[in-house]
Amino acid sequence: MSKFRKKTKVKQDIPTSSMPDVVFMLLFFFMVTTELRKTAVDVMQRIPQATQLRKLQRKSLVTNLYIGEPKKSDQFGTEPKIQAEDVFIEPNDIILWVNREKDKLPENEREQLTVAMKVDSEAKRGIIADVETQLRKANARKILYSTLQKSDKR
Amino acid sequence: MAKSTPEIPNASMADIAFLLLTFFLVTTTMPNDKGLSMQLPPPPEAQPPEDVKIPERNMFKIQVNSSDALLVEGEPMNDVSGLKDMIKKFILNNGVDPKSSDSPEKAIVSLKTDRGTTHKRFVEILDIAQAAYYDIYADQAGVTNEEFRKIASDLNNPENQRLYNKGREGIPMAISIAEPTKAGN
Fold first, then answer.
1. Which residues of A touch B41 (CB under 8 A)?
2. How many CA atoms lie within 13 A of B130 on its CB side?
3. Which residues of chain A does B35 touch, with a Cβ-Cβ cutoff of 8 Å?
4. What is the value of ipTM here, to two decimals?
5. Which of A26, A40, B61, B87 would you call most buried, defined as having the most Cβ atoms within 10 angstroms of its Cβ?
């Protein structure tokens, strides 16, 4: 029986000496993958879902355009608005904005600028079509409708 | 001789690390640069407004009205689950059915919306149309749909480039998005 009695003396403590290491590892992971929000988005962003997603290769070539109902509807109304960086813009300003974005890129990459359109599900096609017409005029023809991955039923 | 201990107390290190970890956990936003990629047509004034007649049989018409109802080839449709196969069949018809497309090269999927159509519905239909094309490309390249989209996202690799060209050979992705009509806004 003495064989079994020994077992009761087993230490119950979890070794904690490696905890800082584990935590630091997690910390570095989050520090590396994190991307601090540059702009505060002031329009609703209920992003629609889709299945056929494509990933963008180079993040430096991507610029975001947010479209949706303003969050502060008492101040800006309920009509969907276009937000670029920190300000609301009108469709007519888009050419100017695109040219400014293109200027930020090196000369040989300007034509590859991709506009990621983060559009709210409830926004209407009308305003989006206006934006697209302007983007065509501004010769920024690569666009991406931001969507989330729909969980597949297949 | 008093023994000085030149050690930094490290009992609180875990706490500090936890604090930083919590900070990054809260402030982090995972970059989400995924979506449906599209190429817009050239500017309206760049091309002369010449009336190109596209035979009826080469157009697969999808229309969506301002209450998000669907009209496919002139027929109302409530359930979109069969739409993908309809589009695939239309593209790969190769002149067999006289009402369907002549060849994959000439086939055009036309998506016409209204100004009042919601973006959600538009994305849903565009997704189906793109799914049909990616399925066909993936079949031609001998990979799965998912793999093909991954390949298409990374064309710097010559092997990927080869598979991509193989998949797309003879079948341009012709999804035309028409100027929306003006019923509802």
1. 136, 141
2. 22
3. 50, 53-54, 116-117, 144-147
4. 0.75
5. B87
| Cβ separation B119–A141 shorter than 8 A | no
* pLDDT > 80? residue A148: yes
Distance CA B46, CA A106 (A): 25
pLDDT score of A154 more than 50: no
Q: Which amino acid is at B88?
A: K
Residues B31, B36, B39, B41, CA torsion sign? negative
pTM, 2 dp? 0.77
Are the C-beta atoms of A57 and A144 separated by less than 8 Å?
Answer: no
Domain A49-149 has CATH 3.30.420.270: yes
Confidence check: pLDDT of A130 > 80: yes
**A1 to chain B, minimum CA–CA distance in Å?**
41
Interchain contact, B40 vs A37, CB within 8 Å: no
- Beta carbons of B28 and A33 less than 8 Å apart: yes
For tokens 């209204």, the residue is: B114
Task: List pLDDT tens digits, range B79-94.
Answer: 888 888 888 888 888 8
CA distance A76 to chain B (A): 18
Beta bridge mates, A81: A68
**Is A140 a residue whose pLDDT tops 80?**
yes
Nearest to B115 among A119, A124, A142 (CB): A124
pLDDT bin (cut points 50, 70, 90) of residue B27 is confident
- Rg of the Cα trace of chain A? 25
* Mean pLDDT of the residues in chain B: 82
Give the pLDDT score at B30. Answer: 67
Could you identify the residue written with the tokens 């739409």? Answer: B83
Domain chopping of chain A, boundaries: 2-33, 49-149
